[in-house]
Amino acid sequence: MTLGLLWGIWAAINVTVFALYGVDKRRAIRGAWRIPEKTLLTGTWLLGGVGAWLAMRTFRHKTKHTAFRVSASIGAVLSLTLMLLASARLLNLF
Hints:
Layout: H1 3-30, H2 37-45, H3 49-59, H4 66-90
Helix pairs in contact: 1-3, 1-4, 2-3, 3-4
């Protein structure tokens, strides 16, 4: 796998999670069918922590829920850490 492909997949995951939070916020405002919390949290933990963290701040969505605040913060740090380690490994830095 190339470095560009790795980061491209990571970016796609985070854009998708960001969009899911945005759609859920819009549906919450309209009183429409919502995206299950389990789906949002799963996306957060599957390398989508940065997208979730940014979405929570952009849309002001799920910010009062401790599980989401903690998951997004830890998920973002974990996601970036894993990506940096994988990148270093691909570049044979260790």
